[in-house]
Amino acid sequence: MDIETILLIQQIMNGLVNGMTYVLIATGLTLVFGVLHIINFAHGEFYMLGAFFTFFASKLLGLDYVTAGILATVAVASLGIVANRFFFWPLRREHEFTLLLSSLGLALLLTNGGELIFGADPKYISSPFADGIVAMGPMILTQQRILIFGVGALMLLLLYFFIQKTTMGKMMRATAQDAEGAALTGVDIRRVYTVTFVLACGLAALAGALVGPTAMIYPTVGSWAVLKGFIVVVLGGLGSIVGALIGGLTLGVVEALVGGYISLGFAQAVGFAIIIVVLLWRPNGLFGVARRAG
Amino acid sequence: MLEIRKINVKYGQREVIHDLSLEVPAGGVVTLIGSNGAGKTTVLKTVSGLLRPTSGSILFEGRPIEKAEPHAIIEAGVVHIPEGRLLFKDMSVAEHIELGTIRAHAGGRTREQRLEWVHELFPILWERRQQKAGTLSGGQQQMLAIARGIMANPKCLMLDEPSLGLAPILVDQLADAIRSLNENGITILLVEQRVDLALRLADRGYVIETGRVVLEDKASALLENPRVKEAYLGA
Amino acid sequence: MRLRSGIAAASMALIAAGTSLAVAQEDNVRVAAIAPLSGPGAFDGQLAIEGMEAMVEIVNEGGGVLDGRMIELVIYDDKGNPEEGVSAAKRAIENDDVDLLVGGWFSSVALTMKEVTRDRMLNIMTSTQHPNTTKEGHDLLFRLNATSTMMSDTYSDFICDRMDIDSIAFITINDDYGRLEAENYEKLLGECGIDFLGNEFYNKDDADFMTVLTKLRAMNPDAIYVSAINTAQGATIYRQIRQVGYQGTTIASAGNMNPKLVELSGPALEGVYSVSLFAPDSDDPELKAWVEQYNEMFDNEPSFIGSLGAQAVEILAQAIDKSGAVRDYDKIAETIRANEWNTLLGDITFDEIGQAQQNIYLIQINDGKIETVN
Predict the structure, then answer these.
(1) How close does chain A come to B176, measured CA to CA in Å?
(2) Hey, is the C-beta of B86 within 8 angstroms of any chain A C-beta?
(3) Between chains, do A180 and B82 touch, taking CB under 8 Å as contact?
(4) Which of A70, C74, C202, C266 is most buried by a 10 A CB count?
(5) Chain B contact for A166, CB < 8 A?
(6) Which 3-state string (H, E, C) describes chain B?
(7) Are B2 and B59 a contacting pair, CB within 8 Å?
(8) Mind telling me how many Å the CA of A80 is from chain B's nearest CA?
(9) For chain B, what is the domain count?
(10) What mean pLDDT do residues B196-201 have?
(11) Which domain holds residue B158?
């Protein structure tokens, strides 16, 4: 292989790993929208909390990275119960815009609370896999990045299985397609809300715990996460998990290629350019389900 | 069996049901008659827990259910088959049947017996069990909505406009199915635009106008009532 | 997102207004401190403000300025962006009527902010390295940091003389400072025969640098020069350089080293060189007093950027005392230009255009500590 081909493959690999992070973030966002029709602006903050909880679990409790990450994911997933209880469930009969504002309020609360409690100084989650390099021929990935991709893919498979095969998953799908019909079939809508938020927050936190060691973390990192999540969700279609998968990987690869062959500045812009094109061409996203009016 | 006592119900700020009372005796078939917007669907939604009455009470087998969640009301034995069926269009027939059982009332028929019963009543659904609900015909969708309801093992079944959009031949089949359900011990509360059909199926009828009961009688008597004839039977 | 940053901005403004109202006192000398307190540069802004606060404490404990007036900081957030910097400076001058102004941590902010203070407000610019901050400055403007040209002159001599490299590639921030830095080094290092293989820009809100670092690695340079003006991005870049499998020499940009960066970057910064005005192992008594005060007040380790903030406060306090003026900016400016100042970073003077003439030290990271190299 000549050097140009190697570079191209390497960039695509970099992009797929970043894309898998976007997928993990966007899946929770799309799940909450698809099942509950809620646009959750606070979603990125659960990514931030996942990263910070991992950091503090390993620093204060002396846990190893993997245990700390699992603990953080579980803790943030449980916070999903609280968030739903106070910020979403009580407003379920209100106008969508009220819910939107509520999620915005929650986002500000968590960011500012995070700055107050965690401090503005950047932090680093140390992971034994962060700098370990795995060479695949001339191509290189760190162990951490392989971990991100592997765990991300595994989680999506598990989620797919959960939603397709388990009774709870079927109840979520039923609620997504017709909430009133679901209630009249015996679906406990409140439990569906709770489980959906637990899954979404857990996935976001897991992404935070996984990506943490590849960069620095700071309390405003959630706004980055939610922005990437929304780009993917618009690309793949709100409410579609397959769309989030394809949209996330696509965005990752496109950003890597644009960053690698044009410039990083363009890579940021390309996400928004994609959104505009997709919205003009297919307003429901590439894989989106059109929403019923009202 | 089901007793509604002087309920008032609001939709947003507007009160749409005023001091409405009615009773469905065990084993009976009761129908609600009224023009569009009279409040029939609202009454059913209130009984099934989708809406909360601002005052009054709803008793099922003597126990108040007006504050219960929809799934708890289903567990108690009251099942509402809504207007427009509200199926899950991307889910299969089998998944609908499965979801129907998640809050089934305990006692009476077993899950297997109900499955067999649905199979008997609607053999076509069995053939199409892997098909998505959205791909079924209108008649089949109505069958599926009823089948989903039967799987919850109801003591009392509330049907809202089941004949809506069905061809005449299917309406006859539907009437047979409702009769068969009642003969098998299920109490029926029926809201139906085809008033003649409804009154022929029912023992008793209530006429509702702008959220109030204005007339209540035996179904056979209502069929002969000149006011009902003029307003609802097109005679 | 726009709505969100709008709300954030509004709440920041409320906080800023709140602090300035709460502590305003009639006879205090009020100094506007404009720094990036949110966004990726937030931590560096925090270090800068902490440095200033520690020195204010020292000055006030020593009896303040003139006949016992206390120095009071009025703090503003420029978010590291030029528009916010301009609006903060305008608010400070027009609404809050501050006496003096310290700002300009990032060059992009300093270059626009100087037009607000032009001939109107005594203004000390701090860590900005862009030559135009002073070259196109004004009579009331002084800048503490060495310019990137002064830094690169010193640094490139060192790179040519002591580092055994034949080729170099750059990763620099996409602003005036970054562009100028890449140009400078391309010229200076070219003169001693080091091949300039390329430069990749990143933006101030980028969080991942793998793609451009992969590209730099593929150029196969002997060294990669990293221009990182904020700690969060800097640490990420240093770590990711190793994560793309690059094994050559890393060169850290001039004037951007701090203990937090060293801590966050871990092994990736071990043995790496930089140049700085701040010699952490110096035994200057002023510096020691400040470090002591700083450690008493704050959890962070004292940093170069904080020492510049402290130096700004120190020079303002001394110049007020010496000139006897607070609001007569021409007189203060004249005094600053005419004298030598004894500061925590050593004795310094200013040239006609307000540029400080400071000592530049070569430093290296050894065992996680910043040390001076002789």
Answers:
(1) 23
(2) yes
(3) yes
(4) C202
(5) no
(6) CEEEEEEEEEECCEEEEEEEEEEECCCCEEEEECCCCCCHHHHHHHHCCCCCEEEEEEEECCEECCCCCHHHHHHHCEEEECCCCCCCCCCEHHHHHHHHCCCCCCCCCCHHHHHHHHHHHCHHHHHCCCCEHHHCCHHHHHHHHHHHHHHCCCCEEEEECCCCCCCHHHHHHHHHHHHHHHHCCCEEEEECCCHHHHHHHCCEEEEEECCEEEEEEEHHHHHHCHHHHHHHCCC
(7) yes
(8) 22
(9) 1
(10) 93
(11) 2-86+154-232
Q: A183 and B89: CB-CB below 8 Å?
A: no
pLDDT of C17? 44
Tokens of C22: 């709460």
Give contacts of B152 with chain A, Cβ < 8 Å: 185-186
- Chain A CB within 8 Å of residue C220 CB: no
Tell me, yes or no, if A143 comes closer than 8 A to chain C by beta carbon: no
Question: Cβ contacts (< 8 Å) between B69 and chain A: which residues?
Answer: 188, 190
Nearest Cα of chain A lies from the Cα of B210 at a distance, in angstroms, of 24
Instruction: Kindly report the nearest CA distance between residue C5 and chain A, in angstroms.
Output: 10
Q: Is B29 on the interface with A (CB under 8 A)?
A: no
Query: What is residue B205's predicted lDDT score, i.e. its pLDDT?
Result: 95
Answer yes or no: is pLDDT of C249 > 90: yes
ipTM: 0.93
C179 close to A (CB below 8 A): no
- CATH number reported for the structural domain that contains residue B169 in this entry: 3.40.50.300
Angle at the Cα of A285 (from A280 to A288), degrees rounded to 5?
145
Mean pLDDT of the A40-52 span:
96
Q: Which class is A3-281 in CATH?
A: mainly alpha
Residue B143 covered by a domain? no
Residues of A in contact with C39 (CB under 8 A): 220
DSSP A258: H
Domains of chain C: which residue ranges?
2-146+283-357, 149-276
Task: Flag whether residue A211 sits within 8 Å of chain B, measured between CB atoms.
Answer: no
What the block records as the tokens of A262 is 């044009």
Decide if pLDDT at C39 tops 70. yes
Instruction: Compute the distance between CA of residue C87 and CA of residue C75 in angstroms, rounded to an integer.
Output: 13
Q: What is the CATH number of domain C2-146+283-357?
A: 3.40.50.2300
Q: Cβ(C122)–Cβ(C53) under 8 Å?
A: no
What was the pLDDT predicted at A286? 64
- Chain B touched by A184 (CB under 8 Å): yes
Contact C85, C61 (CB under 8 A): no
> A16: which 2 tokens?
């797929």
pLDDT in tens, A205-247: 999 999 999 999 989 899 989 999 999 998 888 778 899 999 9
Inside any domain, residue B169:
yes
A189 neighbourhood in chain B, CB within 8 Å: 70
Q: Locate B187 and state its tokens.
A: 């109490």
Q: Looking up tokens 């990293």, which residue turns up?
A: C226
Give the C-alpha distances (Å, rounded to integers) separating C51 from A200, C58, C78: 42, 11, 17
Q: How far is CA C341 from the centre of its chain?
A: 19
Touch between B and C (at least 3 CB pairs under 8 Å) = no
A264 Cβ under 8 Å from any chain C Cβ: yes
- Domain assignment present for residue B135? The answer is no
Provide the shortest C-alpha distance from residue C248 to chain A (in Å). Answer: 15
Backbone angles phi, psi at A212, to 5 degrees: -35, -55
* DSSP secondary structure, A58-72, as one string: HHHS---HHHHHHHH
Residue type, A227: L
User: So what CATH class is C149-276?
Assistant: alpha beta
User: Per-residue pLDDT tens for B133-167?
Assistant: 999 998 999 999 999 999 999 999 999 999 988 88
Which chain A residues touch C207 with a CB distance below 8 Å? 215, 221, 224
- Residue C353's Cα: distance from chain center in Å? 19
Q: Where are the alpha helices (DSSP H) in chain C?
A: 2-23, 42-61, 82-90, 107-117, 132-135, 148-162, 176-191, 210-218, 231-243, 259-265, 285-297, 304-323, 329-338
